């Protein structure tokens, strides 16, 4: 996938700045002195073996968990003080699909709209775009894993948040859905969005502002 360079300035402000983060779980240091930053138009892939600490890092970067050490800043304002501004500009989708399985796809979209910044003009059109035509009105527990993941990812087609933090977004998706999602990432980046994600699959994106950070498994 060959991508043109976005036109906005490379001097854009740092959206998210993490300095000297450390995280300890069950007496194991997952990472320490970990620093990163994210600017508009950048995609940062967090790599590492199972259990290395990728999800733990994403939860810290999302403001859902506190680091054992280190600081986070959103637009040069320290968290947690800037948390509400940060949360308003963030779309976090975790490893679990986050859908309510007893609700239909439409009802899940309506729930997310009521609870967040999502604005969906026509839920049926959006779900059709995601390959879910005809499946809008059945409880999500009756959908396949990949279909449930598509419902979950529909938020990325409706959010106005600039920063997306995504834990294993490609899980359970077929190849065409993976391609479509990667194209959607590129469109977001070219509009000045920014993405941090984990994936065990290689990204098939050629993009000038793609960076990777590996968390090495520590015993
Ligand atoms: N809430 C928690 N309480 C205790 N230990 C935890 C907790 N969350 C994560 N861990 C531990 O921290 C380690 C890292 O987990 P994490 O989910 O961050 O890894 P990961 O790199 O995302 O792995 P995977 O690639 O398998 O998703 C694991 O050993 C896990 O057991």
Automatic annotation (TrEMBL):
Q: Where is the ABC transporter domain?
A: 16-215
Keyword list (alphabetical) reads: ATP-binding, Cytochrome c-type biogenesis, Membrane, Nucleotide-binding, Translocase, Transport
- InterPro entries attached to this UniProt entry: AAA+_ATPase (IPR003593), ABC_transporter-like_ATP-bd (IPR003439), ABC_transporter-like_CS (IPR017871), ABC_transptr_haem_export_CcmA (IPR005895), P-loop_NTPase (IPR027417)
Read off the PANTHER family from this record: ABC TRANSPORTER I FAMILY MEMBER 1
Name of this protein: Cytochrome c biogenesis heme-transporting ATPase CcmA
Source organism: Alishewanella maricola
Q: Which gene encodes it?
A: ccmA
